Amino acid sequence: ASTSHLQLATFALGTVGWILCTVSMGIVEWRVWHVDNTTIISSGVAWVGIWKVCFISYLHVSPGYKEQFCHKFGGHDSSIPHEIYAAQGLLLIAMCTGLLGLTATIFGLRNAYRGITHKTLITRLFLVGGFFYISAGLCVLIPVSWNFYSVTHNQSITFPPSYHMPSSPAAQEAGAAIPIGIVAVILLLLSGTFSLSYRFPVTVNTTMK
After folding, report:
1. pLDDT, tens digit (0-9, with 9 covering 90-100), for 119-145
2. Which of 137, 131, 146, 151 is nearest to 195 (CA)?
3. Is residue 204 part of a domain?
4. Burial of 123 (0-12, 13-18, 19+ CB in 10 A)
5. Nearest to 107 by CA among 28, 43, 41, 195
6. Is 168 contained in some domain?
7. 83 and 157 in contact (C-beta within 8 Å)?
8. pLDDT, tens only, 36-63
């Protein structure tokens, strides 16, 4: 158990990274669009996520009140860019593989702290955990980088007319989901590296003469 403190840190970092991965997948602020026409998008700001697009509108709302309208992306929306659909699939994979990594780490730590000396089992559990952590980190890195590239190049999206969204923003910036995803990538990759670096302690038998 005294040699597994780094793997305990691995579990802590992996847990936080997995939580941040889940958070980034759930929030809508991936790309923040600033639009000039405020007829429908009253605040002039719309949020483009990987599952839906949302904006604030005062239309058909009593004075002094505002309402948030959201349109969920459907599988038939061929105009939605590939980086959004890729983010949906890759983040789901990252959530599952990260959970598998945490599970393997938990069993490895359980055996180590209970004093079980099954070298092959414990080593393999930490190696499997490290593999899943790194896989999860890479699955988060791809959509985060791809969407950040789209933001920095101010790429447009041809939304269906029912979305009431312009095809091009006046300007756009990275939303909160992207930096959260970047932190998740760092933590998951660190967890994977630490887990793969585990070495079972070598015991030296000494005989007294």
Report:
1. 677 788 889 999 999 999 999 999 999
2. 131
3. no
4. middle
5. 195
6. yes
7. no
8. 887 788 888 999 999 999 988 876 555 5
Question: What's 158's DSSP letter?
Answer: -
Distances from the Cα of 104 to the Cα of 14, 80, 100, angstroms? 11, 37, 6
Inside any domain, residue 121:
yes
Q: Domain with 188 in it: what CATH number?
A: 1.20.140.150
The structure tokens listed for 132 are: 């899943």
pLDDT at 177: 94
- pLDDT mean over 135-164: 91
Q: How far apart are CA 54 and CA 193, in angstroms?
A: 38
Burial group, residue 133, by CB count within 10 angstroms (0-12, 13-18, 19+): buried
In DSSP terms, 168 is beta-bridged to none
pLDDT number for residue 168: 87
Domain count, the chain: 1
Which of 35, 30, 34, 154 is closest to 86 using CA atoms? 30
- Domain range for residue 120? 1-29+78-197
